Structures are given as structure tokens and as C-alpha cells.
Amino acid sequence: VYVADFYNHRVQVFDAAGKYLKQWGEQGDEQGQFDGPTALAVDQAGDIYVVDWTNRRIQKFSGDQK
Questions:
Q1: Is-contact 4 37, C-beta < 8 A?
Q2: Which residues lie below 8 Å from residue 44, measured CB to CB, with a gap of 6+?
Q3: Do β-strands 10-14 and 2-5 pair in parallel, antiparallel, or remain unpaired?
Q4: CB of 9 within 8 A of CB of 35?
Q5: pTM of the predicted structure, to 2 decimals
Q6: Is 60 helix (H, G, I), strand (E, B) or coil?
Q7: Cα angle value 60/65/66 (rounded, 5°)
Q8: pLDDT (tens digit per residue) in 2-53
Q9: Cys bridge to 38: 5, 17, 26, 53, which one at CB 3.0-4.6 A?
């Protein structure tokens, strides 16, 4: 389960039982940084798209980057 954590400027990852696995991101406007991530989607290849609200962009992360 991927969670867009708006106020902490990161994406958190949990397993199916709700156990915390990892996180990535920090506040900023560079690649891999967020300023208010609000939504995300995963495509068939396992790539993750994160909507970064304040920076008005969508960032793509490949399966090996996450």
C-alpha cells in the first residue's frame, strides 16, 4: 500500500497487513522531493506516479527506484 503523505512531503509504503516498510521523499522541488504529494497511481509495469500539488507536477518513479 502506497500513501501520499501531504504534510510530511513523502510517500510511505506499507504491506497488506499495515506494517510500515519504507518511505521516500522530502520537502523540496527537485526530483524525488515533494511539496504536498496528494495522490498516486501505479501502472501495470509497477511504476509509481505521484501528484505533487504545490510544485504542480507529476513525478514518475520506476520499480527499481521505489
A1: yes
A2: none
A3: antiparallel
A4: yes
A5: 0.87
A6: strand
A7: 85
A8: 999 999 999 999 999 999 999 999 999 999 999 999 999 999 999 999 999 9
A9: 53
